[in-house]
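lol forgot to send this yesterday, sorry. struct tokens for the thing we talked abt
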């Protein structure tokens, strides 16, 4: 993957104010030639995301929360595959989603299901700036009573939030797509159209904040088709297994979207 110079090796001398933490260079094939991410030793708390954003941005690092899950599994054991990740900008989101749709929709949604194309950007802007909403969602995720208690703050060398999975060589969706940069191309498109930011990433899970969510059912239904192509497990392994219900309950006016790959 084409990247800017990695600021992680010089993080200790950058002046960034960070809690105790560790660099990760572990991959499925052994140590990578440079660190892929830094993450904190202790769980994050409300306010951590904003502090990490302030510390990381001046040196070219973006924040994300890491979820160890029930198995307490952290990035050293995530089978990261940076050598398999291409560059997100080399892929077209509509082409990627169209290919996924052609592979999955006929079996899951019926032979007559046709790829509807990309959903339009919502007509209405969200009430918050995307970065501010991401910080607020991150605060909801952290702490003992948060949505993801025990998550830890991380910093990743990435141009934009949508590129974080490719920057670390994330292998969460490997049973569906072994070049995560293709999924990042879709995330880039959602970043542009819907103001998404990656807030939490786990072994095989992804949660994003949504700065401009669909505000009409028609918009939500159009976008639900993209969600299905991006992550079929969200629909075909999650009750009620219906794309229209998913659009209404999980997409319409929702400020977070979550994805999981089997």
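and heres what i got for the seq, position by position
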């Amino acid at each position: 993957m084409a990247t800017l110079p990695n600021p992680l090796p010089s993080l200790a001398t950058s002046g960034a104010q960070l809690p105790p933490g560790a660099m990760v260079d572990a991959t499925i094939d052994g140590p990578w030639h440079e660190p892929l991410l830094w993450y904190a030793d202790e769980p994050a708390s409300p306010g951590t995301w904003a502090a990490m954003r302030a510390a990381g941005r001046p040196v070219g690092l973006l924040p994300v929360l890491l979820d160890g899950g029930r198995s307490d599994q952290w990035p050293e054991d995530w089978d990261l595959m940076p050598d398999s990740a291409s560059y997100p900008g080399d892929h077209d989101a509509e082409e990627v989603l169209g290919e996924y749709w052609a592979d999955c929709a006929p079996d899951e949604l019926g032979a007559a299901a046709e790829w509807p194309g990309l959903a339009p950007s919502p007509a209405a802007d969200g009430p918050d700036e995307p970065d501010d909403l991401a910080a607020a969602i991150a605060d909801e995720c952290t702490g003992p009573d948060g949505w993801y208690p025990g998550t830890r703050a991380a910093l990743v060398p990435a141009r934009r939030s949508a590129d974080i999975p490719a920057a670390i060589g994330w292998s969460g969706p490997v049973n569906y797509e072994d070049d995560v940069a293709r999924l990042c191309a879709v995330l880039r498109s959602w970043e542009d159209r819907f103001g998404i930011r990656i807030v939490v990433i786990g072994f095989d899970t992804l949660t994003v904040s949504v700065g401009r969510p669909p505000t009409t059912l028609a918009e939500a239904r159009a976008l639900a088709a993209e969600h299905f192509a991006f992550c079929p497990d969200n629909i075909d392994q999650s009750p009620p297994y219906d794309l229209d219900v998913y659009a209404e309950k999980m997409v319409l006016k929702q400020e977070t979207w979550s994805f999981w790959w089997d």
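The radius of gyration is 18 Å. anyway ping me if u want another try
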